[in-house]
Write a structure and sequence with these properties.
nine-stranded mixed sheet, 30% strand, 4 helices, three-stranded antiparallel sheet
């Protein structure tokens, strides 16, 4: 499927994190960014420069090493604008890179664990446990940590199976896993106002936080009886006319 949204809607959604980091560009709430859909047959030419302009404006205003104000410029041998220290004796370059998001779709006896978000954006919406990968941990360790932090559920990282990879316009790379739990014990963390197990038919599809949450849950449902799940790959890009295009792969 292809999902689209006008560029004018991005201003209010790209400044906040998809989870809880105020310095990071968001994928936006599902109810805002993905309520308009277009048919698969539509063809749109992609334009990378739109993504580049986003990344070039999201860097630090001051040098991370010496505190001097930074300047947007293309360093020698580079092809993109970077935030470069204004002090020639320092010259530190602040490279901005996509964030890695990890998540786990946890199930127990054909029910799926969902958390209701207690933080913005999309406070009050539902999803599986997910968040930013921390330094010093593997993607599986990060997904297990997020499951503990948000739902009080202990997961063995080695039992997590890769389920999906989502690339969001050079802003995020999401690695989503699945895991079958040994029991249905849980306790809501401070980022969750509610946690519960629901059957696949009881998932509140219209109350999910992000489009990627919907994708992940749909794919997990389709793969629930498959011993080794096929890994779903989706890429979301910004098109020449300032809209999102979502493609398989």
């Amino acid at each position: 499927m292809i999902y689209r949204v006008a560029a004018s809607l991005l201003a209010s959604t790209l400044s906040a994190s998809a989870f809880h980091s105020s310095h990071y560009i968001s994928q936006g709430c599902r109810s805002v960014l993905f309520r308009q859909r277009a048919c698969i047959g539509d063809t749109i030419k992609r334009i990378p420069s739109i993504t580049l302009s986003m990344s070039s404006t999201s860097g630090p205003s001051f040098c991370e090493k010496c505190g001097t104000p930074t300047q947007l410029q293309i360093p020698e041998g580079d092809e993109r604008e970077r935030h470069v220290c204004g002090d020639p004796s320092c010259g530190h370059i602040a490279y901005q890179n996509p964030k890695v998001v990890v998540g786990a779709i946890a199930t127990y006896q054909d029910k799926v664990l969902l958390c209701q978000r207690n933080i913005e954006p999309c406070k009050g919406k539902w999803g599986y446990c997910q968040g930013f990968l921390e330094l010093g941990e593997t993607s599986r360790q990060g997904a297990a940590r997020e499951t503990w932090e948000e739902a009080g559920v202990t997961v063995d990282p080695s039992k997590l199976e890769l389920l999906a990879i989502y690339n969001l316009a050079g802003m995020q790379v999401q690695l989503i896993y699945r895991v079958e739990l040994e029991n249905d014990t849980f306790e809501a963390g401070h980022e969750s106002s509610d946690v519960k197990f629901v059957s696949w038919d009881e998932i509140p599809w219209e109350e999910l936080a992000f489009a990627t949450v919907e994708w992940g849950l749909e794919h997990a449902r389709d793969m629930k009886d498959v011993a080794t799940p096929a890994v779903q790959e989706r890429t979301k890009l910004i098109t020449k006319d300032g809209k999102w295009e979502v493609e398989e792969g």
